[in-house]
Amino acid sequence: MDAVGSLEETPNKRMQFATSRHVNSTELERNEEREKYSGVPVRLKQEAQVARDRLLSNRTLPVSRPRKKPVRLPPDVSLEDFEAAIKEIQGAIGDENVEVNDKPLVDGWYMQHPNTHDAFHITDQEELVSSAVVYPGSTEEVQATVRWANKFGIPIYPISIGRNLGYGGAAPRIPGGVVVDLGKRMHEIINIDAENASCLVEPGVTYFRLYEEIQNRKLPLWIDTPDLGGGSVLGNAIDRGVGYTPYGDHFANRCGMEVVLPNGELLRTGMGALPGPDGADNPTWQSFQHAFGPSIDGIFSQSNFGIVTKMGMQLMPAIEHQSYCFTFPRDDDFEQIVDLIRPLAQKGILGNIPQLRHVIQELNVTGRRKSDFHDGSGPMTREEVRAAAAKLPLGDCSWVFYGTQYGPSASIAAQLEVIKSEFFKIPGSKFFLPSDLPSDHYLHDRSLVCSGVPVLRELDWLNWLANSGHLFFSPIAPTRGKDARTIHEIIVKAHERHGFDLFPTLCVAGREIHYITNIIYDRADANMKASAVKLMREMIKECAEKGFGEYRTHLLFADQVAGTYNWNNSAFMRFNESIKDLLDPNGILAPGRNGIWPKRFRGKGWELKADDIDLSSIGPRPEK
Ligand code: ADP
Description:
Blueprint: H1 23-38, H2 45-57, H3 79-93, E1 98-100, E2 132-134, H4 139-152, E3 156-159, E4 178-181, E5 189-193, E6 198-201, H5 207-216, E7 221-222, H6 233-238, E8 254-260, E9 266-268, E10 307-314, E11 316-317, E12 321-328, H7 334-346, E13 355-358, H8 360-364, H9 382-390, E14 399-406, H10 409-423, E15 430-432, H11 442-449, E16 468-473, E17 476-478, H12 481-498, E18 504-508, E19 512-522, H13 526-545, H14 558-564, H15 567-583
Helix pairs in contact: 3-4, 7-12, 12-13
Residues 158-164, 170, 182, 203, 231-232, 234-236, 238-239, 307-308, 590, 593 line the site of adenosine-5'-diphosphate (ADP).
Keywords: FAD, Flavoprotein, Oxidoreductase
GO molecular function: D-lactate dehydrogenase (cytochrome) activity; D-lactate dehydrogenase (NAD+) activity; FAD binding
Cofactor: FAD
């Protein structure tokens, strides 16, 4: 276990930057600033406070510790050049908009997340760190930042909000890269078009902000939010995140982008490529995605080909809805449940992408600690889960299906009859409405999320262990019982081998399942972190052998995942590399993101492959 230290500032004698201040005041100012644009809405203040206090009471690690190492410089950049570069970018966008990352690192919590490193560090906290953070305030300043990076050969990593926790947060893949935090100063809701049911936003607009604005304007529109509402609408769509209304596929519901290319040039996609009258934006920019010619939006999602400065999103007209859940008694009902969902989803009878969860999730969404149910280390036994679940509102069961139907009430009633008649084919299955369950049951929060109301409830499962961090493992499987069982068994066995509780949530569509597991570890326990890395590596490999690949991953596993998409001598990656080298010859934009390395870094030991299980230090490795 890491030692518990005290909150002290690192004296950094080597470098004196204009921006160096005491950690406390910097943090305070930063938090106050963040509060204004990415903070929690008033309606959730108290809930946030409770969530925060509960999480912090389960933390044994100090708030911060003195830094062990000096500022991590970008690769191939001397201290002298770095100092000159910092001065230059300060001159271009303002001293106060450039921060050197030389203070103690603070993991914070969801609402006060760092932009200096990965808050849920799976490696040493000081490994995935930036050298500095810059805050451009306009598209022109993003262009200036990109040109600056080219001049000094400094890798830059754009984030919108940086709450991509579980996938690497705000961390740069190359330690010492400069984080470009777009959200702090670029957080305008440029337009909400109530008739077209769409909006145009900058990177720093969170789900909370957009939702509150629509409520303030009393517009009959829904947003689509992921499980937690503090992320960026634009950033999440670029990373192909999902939500739970019928508009849950965020990238599919984008409409028009503005992108700064790695050479600093500015591009608009879709109808935005056609200038509007008198210098205005094109009037159909948020109405038609594809426009004319190749549809290139996709190459800017999960890639490192551009920095997105504006994005249009389609909004859903508000409609009546009804959330509900079913429970199923036996672990072995799994295959049949999946096979029953498939036709219901394909025919459009299920209203949204439902979630199928194992009953162990009922325990950890209560916000209680694992130690309430289980003594010592090692995963909970099935008997312990059964005994604990029996005392909860849904009772002793095995799988829980959370769904929502939409439309006029008569239509919802008819849909529910069809769905019930299908799921009741499984002996012992039960049906619940929110009114059947206590007011603090998770179903009430699902009802909010599934009608586009962003919440914080999903933070509660982070209390499971002390100092909890988490990683997502997110493969895609076909919606077919036997395939779902194959992938489930791989994941169950791997968790057993490494001693982790398994928390599966399956987002089941008509043809594919996002099988999302949450690996929860104690950030103070180096052995547990090392086991989590092995667990990830093995699951990626074993799933790929059966043809199952991840749709998204933590940045340290991106090379391995990208390497599994290797059909025809890795034609897909070679295509991506060709685009990368053309657009970004100096290799400055987010090298390594999604496993795409520019020529400058490619094959020079930066890639982390299946056999790289020691992630204690991140940097170029000698050829094996
Ligand atoms: P959120 O806070 O919404 O969860 P992030 O801002 O952390 O999301 O973004 C997730 C990832 O998407 C980032 O790590 C980055 O790789 C990419 N990304 C985010 N915003 C942009 C952007 N505006 N342009 C290019 N890439 C971005």
